[in-house]
Amino acid sequence: MKPETLFDKIWDSHVVKTIEGGPDVLYIDQHFIHEVTSPQAFDGLRARGINVFRPSMTLATADHNIPTQDQDLPIRDKLSRKQVETLTRNCNEFGITCYGLNDPHNGIVHVIGPELGFTLPGMTIVCGDSHTSTHGAFGTVAFGIGTSEVEMVLATQCILQPKPRKMKIHVEGKLGKGVSAKDLILYIISQLSTSGATAYFVEYAGPAITALSMEGRMTVCNMSIEMGARGGLIAPDETTFEYLRQIPSLAQDPDFHTHLGKWAQLKTDPDAVFDREFTFDAGKIKPMITYGTNPGMGIAIDETIPALEDIGDETRTSFIKSLNYMGFTPGMKLAGQPVDYVFLGSCTNGRIEDLRTFAAFVKGRKKAPGVTALIVPGSKKVEKQAIDEGLAAVLEEAGFSLRQPGCSSCLAMNEDKIPPGKYAVSTSNRNFEGRQGPGARTLLASPLTAAAAAVTGKITDPGELM
């Protein structure tokens, strides 16, 4: 029998039909939806006079447009309020479970899926959101889809999809002091570029990957698409299974142990062939920071922005344009650069581990004057954990405050916008022009680096304060 990759095993077992010379008809186990990319899909169903084919396999939550303060009050922005209300109405009409604003299970779609036990090894998962790749941390084939495809999955529980090529990224060694999963993936993207994995599905492996917590693995898989990949996944192991054992709904399932046995078989066969492979040394990775307007423009905090002569002719124009937007110059050092905002949150770094990391660092310290900090849990569950564990009290003592769950200033679809020209050290996933607000200048970093910036008021290597 031909050796297979983990990706092949999951994908091929879900193919309903292969269209000769065309895409596969792929069966979808779990469909997540939110208020932004689903309204047109439901309108399409109505226009065709059809229902959702398998509503129990779709889960909805409001996250992109919701405020992170005063959630007990009506949403002030009329468009945001309409989208959230429309999601609730559509889900009620079509029989879909919806965790709307103030529901105890509400949160960012890619945070609540795993924490509530909807994300399981071996699944195919889609959502009308590019960072659906997050769920690949559990050994799933998970990827984002467009609005027309959302309608397709609602109507058929299947999707037309060409099979991606396969890439393996092996990370040897051990991460150093103050270096996290976020630094690891920012480093990889800086090495491969934002197009280096285009048309591939990436499997991450190696000692540095298996040493990561599930939160860390989700961070890595979340940002796979920032190097052009269709998605990323990590083979499930005992770390995965222990995470799943902590979910009450799964632990109470009489078939859970049977499932564990099957999930343990989900791994790439020895000698399986990938279309492309890369190996990195975790020991060479330092705390990272981005300096430009795409996630591939990243450097170690103690490095300098590349000199103009080090940039190829084909990208030099965009490089200069990016630095002009950011207010930086070639050869400049970012360490010591003043910052105005710090954002901890998003589907990349809004989990309880991220809040624990931030709170542990700022404990006994004070927020720097002039810094506005947005500390946003990824879900109601994370919010409750932060309060119950005393993290919220630690934050308050240090001059911070815990906001309510939501996508927040990751994408400026809500009230949490970064003002024009201001610098924000952000734990989110994208630093495009205007991503966090018109004219906002975003520097992507880890929760630890964000915490260091929050207490010093400037870009700081967290290792220097640890």
Explained architecture:
The chain is an alpha/beta fold. The chain is built from 17 helices and 18 strands. It has three domains: 6-161, 2-Layer Sandwich (Aconitase, domain 3), CATH 3.30.499; 165-284, 3-Layer(aba) Sandwich (Aconitase, Domain 2); 298-465, Aconitase, domain 3, CATH 3.30.499. It has helices at 6-13, 39-48, 78-94, 109-115, 147-156, 181-192, 207-210, 214-222, 238-245, 248-251, 256-263, 313-326, 346-349, 352-362, 380-388, 391-397, 447-456; strands at 15-18, 24-27, 30-33, 58-61, 97-99, 124-127, 141-144, 158-161, 165-172, 200-205, 231-233, 276-281, 288-290, 298-300, 341-344, 372-375, 423-426, 441-444. The termini are far apart. The model has no long low-confidence stretch (mean pLDDT 97).
Summarize the structure.
With 466 residues, the chain is an alpha/beta fold.
Q: Could you name the CATH homologous superfamily of the largest domain?
A: Aconitase, domain 3
How many domains? The number is 3
Fraction in helix: 25-40%
Query: How many strands?
Result: 18
State the separation between the terminal residues, measured CA to CA: 52 Å
Question: How do the strands of the widest beta sheet line up side by side?
Answer: 5-4-3-6-7
Strand content: 15-25%
**Alpha-carbon Rg, integer:** 21 Å
Largest sheet data: 5 strands, parallel
Uncertain segments = none
In the CATH hierarchy, the architecture of the largest domain is: 2-Layer Sandwich
The top level CATH class name of the largest domain: Alpha Beta
- Summing up helix and strand content along with how strands pair, one would put the structural category as alpha/beta
What is the residue-mean pLDDT, rounded to a whole number? 97
Q: Give the number of helices.
A: 17
CATH fold name of the largest domain: Aconitase, domain 3
